[in-house]
């Protein structure tokens, strides 16, 4: 049995800015981390259907790195982005599906993230990780 996490977060930014933050290597390095204080030393984007997306996060306390990646399945700038995802430490696991919708309204944009296919009993960990990443994204957009 797999699990799903769905998170909605309203940003004071355009859908275009947010879509670009999800597909720009430099911006992804500033926000895509699972916990406060972590780093993202590498990010890769080949923005085309079937192209790859990849990040490596590092815990600076002990230097442990966590990497993963996948392939883009939907690219509809600035409305929707979807890609598969597999963690490096679980290469034989079924790929997850990450879907991101950008919904503009009233000068703000709500990002709706749906992360499907999570391993059983990990929903809370993924929810915490995405919540932290969204807080980082909000800060990155204010720079």
Main β sheet profile: 7 strands, antiparallel
Strand composition percent? 35-45%
**Tally of alpha and pi helices:** 3
Distance between the termini: 41 Å
The CATH topology label is Alpha-D-Glucose-1,6-Bisphosphate, Chain A, domain 4
Question: How would you write the strand order of the largest sheet?
Answer: 1-7-6-5-4-3-2
List the helices and strands and how they pair.
Layout: E1 3-11, H1 15-23, H2 25-31, E2 39-45, E3 52-58, E4 65-76, E5 80-87, E6 96-105, E7 108-118, H3 123-141
Antiparallel strand pairs: 1-7, 2-3, 3-4, 4-5, 5-6, 6-7
Helix pairs in contact: 1-2, 2-3
Task: Briefly summarize what is shown.
By secondary structure, the chain is of the alpha+beta class. It is built from 3 helices and 7 strands. It has a single domain, classed as START domain (Alpha-D-Glucose-1,6-Bisphosphate, Chain A, domain 4, 2-Layer Sandwich), CATH 3.30.530.20.
Description:
With 143 residues, the chain is α+β, with helices and mostly antiparallel strands. The protein has one domain: START domain (Alpha-D-Glucose-1,6-Bisphosphate, Chain A, domain 4, 2-Layer Sandwich), CATH 3.30.530. Helices cover 24% and strands 45% of the residues. The chain contains 3 helices and 7 strands. It has helices spanning 15-23, 25-31, 123-141; strands at 3-11, 39-45, 52-58, 65-76, 80-87, 96-105, 108-118. The protein has a 7-stranded antiparallel β-sheet with strand order 1-7-6-5-4-3-2, with helices on one face. A hairpin with an 8-residue loop joins strand 5 and strand 6 (96-105). Helix 1 (15-23) crosses helix 2 (25-31) and helix 2 (25-31) packs across helix 3 (123-141). The termini are far apart.
């Amino acid at each position: 049995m797999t699990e799903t996490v769905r998170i909605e977060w309203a940003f004071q930014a355009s859908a275009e800015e947010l879509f670009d933050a999800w597909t720009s290597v430099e911006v992804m390095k500033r926000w895509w981390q699972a916990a406060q204080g972590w780093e993202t030393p590498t990010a890769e984007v080949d923005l085309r259907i079937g192209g790859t997306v990849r990040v490596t996060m590092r815990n600076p306390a002990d230097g442990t790195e966590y990497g993963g990646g996948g392939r883009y399945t939907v690219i509809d700038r600035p409305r929707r982005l979807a890609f598969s995802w597999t963690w490096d430490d679980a290469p034989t696991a079924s790929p997850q599906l990450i879907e991101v919708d950008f919904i503009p309204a009233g000068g703000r944009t709500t990002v709706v993230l749906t992360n499907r296919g999570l391993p059983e009993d990990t929903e809370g960990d993924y929810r915490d990780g995405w919540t932290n990443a969204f807080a980082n994204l909000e800060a990155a957009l204010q720079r």
